[in-house]
What does this fold into?
Amino acid sequence: MPTYIPVSDEKLRAIKAMQPKESTDLAVYSTKDGIGIILSVDHGRHHMSISRSDRLPSWEDVKAAREMFLPIGKHFVIALPPPQHYVNMHQYVLHLWELRPDREPDLIWTFEQG
It folds into this structure.
């Protein structure tokens, strides 16, 4: 499991300035081998951005970070929106978004059925 290190206050301020106003609970971490993590709560949903400096994060990278930082009892997805709605400010980033039972009950039901 990688060791996640909080970023400097200066870098945190710079990242916070780029976040939507409704983002709360912002936290930013990095690892010595190039993984970057941004955590927030946006519109009441947990959100995690995970990136690598030189390639997309692997499934193992995503899984380890999800288990370390996001609530275990909640469902998360990596969404792929239509191209006109891409927001990536980094070439090698993936976003995990919390599914909410009150908004996506059928999708959550599908996951829980195995």
Remarks:
- The first helix runs from residue 9 to 18.
- Residues 5-112 form a domain with the Streptococcus thermophilus LMG 18311 protein like fold (CATH 3.40.1720.10).
- The chain has a mean pLDDT of 84.
- The chain has one domain: 5-112.
